[in-house]
Amino acid sequence: xxxxxxxxxxxxxxxxxxxxxxxxxxxxxxxxxxxxxxxxxxxxxxxxxxxxxxxxxxxxxxxxxxxxxxxxxxxxxxxxxxxxxxxxxxxxxxxxxxxxxxxxxxxxxxxxxxxxxxxxxxxxxxxxxxxxxxxxxxxxxxxxxxxxxxxxxxxxxxxxxxxxxxxxxxxxxxxxxxxxxxxxxxxxxxxxxxxxxxxxxxxxxxxxxxxxxxxxxxxxxxxxxxx
Length: 227
Fold this sequence. Notes:
α4 (87-95) packs parallel to α8 (192-205) and α6 packs across α7. The chain is an alpha/beta fold. Strands 2-1-3-4-5 form a five-stranded parallel sheet, with helices on both faces. A four-stranded antiparallel sheet has the order 6-7-8-9, covered by helices on one side. Strands 10-12-11 form a three-stranded antiparallel sheet. The chain has helices at residues 14-26, 40-47, 63-71, 87-95, 108-122, 156-166, 175-183, 192-205; strands at residues 6-10, 30-34, 51-55, 78-82, 100-103, 130-133, 136-139, 144-147, 150-151, 173-174, 211-216, 220-225.
């Protein structure tokens, strides 16, 4: 199936599948569906979707495991669908590489707005997207971060957050601004999500005299280089 607007919906609730499919088709999307976690990866490889709507509670394999497997081979946007609304669940999904998180029940207009926003953020212009600092390379062309010649294990959202800060060297951003710019204006998240991501990035890249991610107390974060 070759289509620039294919959305794969993975949910074991056939009523929800039918409703989502109806709304998405009205918006011009091509929709593929899957009702089991243990067949979701095969469906993903077969369909080659532009975006995945992924439920957490699935038979055969839960959504978190499916997400991990997807992220091991693809950076295609994933929006989690779940009845759970706890902040820790949202952070877990985002840490595993989800692009957004929508608790059930949700309004169709909200779902469509989230899909459009995630697709808009994931669209990559043709120009090269690579930043280089001493010992550190951040690339959005192939979603990699290389430290001293070694590629780091870093999920897409961490890479996007690091790239955003590093591409605006010296500028301070609040947590709310980072949520808006990196996760999107319609991400209804907790600002602690940013703190968790920054902590993980720092653990992986460390800091050097030439560059570091600095905390500006009472404000937010910035990427700073030596003058």
